[in-house]
């Protein structure tokens, strides 16, 4: 039996995750009705990042992290911080340190010994903000939007540690509203909806950028050996980055482009040699009734014929195998 946990977003009354048995195509909600949404806007409610370490599962919400006992899936702890604002990806390293991306402040944070610490915020590192790290101690970013933070620049999505390096993915800011980008799209020299994102590779000790990969915005890292797989949000393909050589390759997925199907590419887990990939309905929160998909692809991106419909779920976000 292959069972996975997936996080989901939508205009929900309380957060939950999905427990999915892919062999029998069954879907069960694991609900947390006592957890209230305090700061998130309606369309950003739900769960986002998820990871596990030593019998504990961590799940990100907008402004807090739930810690679950792996077997029972019961909440054993909750942590919040003034620096938690639209949390996206989270990641346990080999020592059990929890790394976090707080997107509204474009920050990489970490939790060590129960303490939340800012680690790398590009706007501060590059002198593009009026804040310094000491200033953050007197600020509360939980109930703000991106434009209000004074730190938002890249739309950072995820962080993954590999040895002495951090791999930080980001979506990028949409520039296609300008006449120049509209013209490029019209003549076919730029993809519509393209977001100039990529991956920063940082030295964990010095925080210096070792490598900067420019690519369409990347989400949902899945580390398998030396390969770090990401989903591309708009292109419906995977990107596999070799963490040793820093070379990448694309895996186009056998599904209609989202401009025809309406399905974006979010959420990724591996089952044996195949991938289960989530497909989220573009701006589905505006619809009265919507659904998402999980589809199974082989390593070349060919559709296996297996898919699982997730009814009343606007957005699939990330998954882990349990």
Main sheet specs: 4 strands, antiparallel
Q: What is the distance, rounded to the nearest whole angstrom, between the alpha carbons of the first and last residues?
A: 10 Å
Q: Please provide the count of β strands.
A: 24
* Overall body shape: globular
Radius of gyration: 19 Å
- The secondary structure category is mainly beta
Mean pLDDT over the residues: 89
Helical residues, percent: under 10%
The oligomeric status of these chains comes to: single chain
Q: Which ranges are low-confidence, i.e. pLDDT below 50, for 5 or more consecutive residues?
A: 175-185
Number of helices: 4
Order of helices and strands: EEEEEEEEEEEHHEEHEEEEEEHEEEEE
Fold blueprint:
Blueprint: E1 3-9, E2 16-21, E3 26-31, E4 50-53, E5 56-60, E6 64-69, E7 75-80, E8 87-92, E9 98-102, E10 107-112, E11 115-120, H1 122-125, H2 146-149, E12 156-162, E13 165-170, H3 179-186, E14 196-203, E15 209-216, E16 218-224, E17 227-232, E18 237-242, E19 248-252, H4 258-261, E20 263-271, E21 274-281, E22 291-297, E23 303-311, E24 315-321
Antiparallel strand pairs: 1-2, 1-24, 2-3, 4-5, 5-6, 6-7, 8-9, 9-10, 10-11, 12-13, 13-14, 14-15, 16-17, 17-18, 18-19, 20-21, 21-22, 22-23
